[in-house]
Amino acid sequence: MPVPRSLRVRFDDPAFWQTFFFDAEGVTPVPDVAVELPVGGACQVVLEVKGRYDSYELGIRTPTSDGIRSAGWDDMAHWHPYAFRWWELDLICRAVATLDPLLPHPGPTLVLLCRFVSVHDDDDVEQIASTMHTAFESLRPTGWAGYWPNVTDWLARRDFRGRGVSWTRDQSGNLYAVQEADSDHPFYSMRAQPTDDPAGFPYEEWRILLAAAGKTLGV
Fold this sequence. Notes:
Blueprint: H1 5-8, H2 14-20, E1 33-40, E2 43-50, E3 55-61, E4 69-74, H3 86-99, H4 108-113, H5 125-139, H6 151-156, E5 165-169, E6 175-179, H7 203-217
Antiparallel strand pairs: 1-2, 2-3, 3-4, 5-6
Helix pairs in contact: 3-7
């Protein structure tokens, strides 16, 4: 389903977001839910939340995929969250908003998925920061001045500018990341050089997903 009610009703709860973003441990339980976000063309982004384990997994489903294909995960142990380039995440969120007026952009979809994006040298960081600020503030309770997710903390955890990460596109159109071996800030991502490993990043389905989102938006 889209955002389940058990999750939606927590959007204005500061303690919920404090746990969601690993800013505090066990402040409030995060429900175990699966969030299915259609982008068009029978394609979906799927966020699986396992609150008991502080684990969040990003998956995608397309007409050609065999079930849900994993694209990354975030937890407190062996995380590999960096799946999206910013422009891809923005495209996905705008497509979701087009199909579901209850999920405007920038807003809840971006906040739920922003743990899976990284920021790089060729990104417009000022524009990204402005968009993320709008998304966070769109969910803040009126008059609340206590803890709330903020751009400074969010960016510090996924800012790879000057960290030796470069992006390459292969002949099939797959965009993947390469990081210098001596970096002191590892880029944990499934988006390594494409191989035939069925457990690797689902590049073919990813291209289908982005194309479907673009078609929804007419771009």
